[in-house]
Amino acid sequence: MPFSTSQSLQELYLDCRSELEAVLFARLRCRETAADLSQEAFVRLCRSGDLSQVGNLKAYLFRTAQNLLFDHYRSQNVRNAAIADWPEPTLPDAPDLRCAETVALGEQALDSLIGALAELSPLCQRIFYLNRFEGLKQREIAEQLNVSVRTVEDNIKRALLHCAQTLGQP
């Protein structure tokens, strides 16, 4: 079939696109990739310039698609090899936080912390609460409670030290 115009490429596209995609799908088992490779084969054919020397344009198209398929397999193999070489993520040896003993120890520590906070003065409790649970900055707490920033800092420090001593931490 002699070839000389873009009209022939358009006819080839209309005649062979479905068949080419079906052939590619049979090998790939992925419709999207088959459609992409088919499209790329047509694009390469359009960009190849003078095709007047090609005796069988359909065979040339299918050979181009086959070469694209081989390129696809090669790149997929390289990608898979790169993924296989990637080390498996390992988790550090962490204690199982779901065991009964860990839960009991956590509850005991929480009770101790609540008790320690209850021993603080009401102003110290309020400042600590606003800072640690409400997320207010020291200046905001000072303005809200009408105290100095230094008072806020001292009370936060006092609360943290008291909680650390109660929990047995330095």
Please specify the SSE layout and strand pairing.
Elements: H1 6-28, H2 31-47, H3 57-85, H4 100-118, H5 122-132, H6 138-145, H7 149-166
Helix pairs in contact: 1-2, 1-3, 2-3, 4-7, 5-7, 6-7
Average pLDDT, rounded to a whole number, is 86
Distance N terminus to C terminus? 90 Å
Q: Pick out the low-confidence regions.
A: none
Largest sheet: none
Based on the structure, what is the oligomeric state of the protein chains? single chain
Structural class: mainly alpha
Q: Give, in order, the helices and strands.
A: HHHHHHH
Please state the CA-atom Rg, rounded to the nearest Å. 36 Å
The portion of residues forming beta strands comes to under 5%
Q: How many strands?
A: 0
Dominant shape: elongated
Fraction of helical residues = over 70%
Please tell me about this protein's structure:
By secondary structure, the protein is an all-alpha fold. Helices cover 74% and strands 0% of the residues. The longest helix has 29 residues, at 57-85. It starts with 5 loop residues before the first helix and ends with a helix.
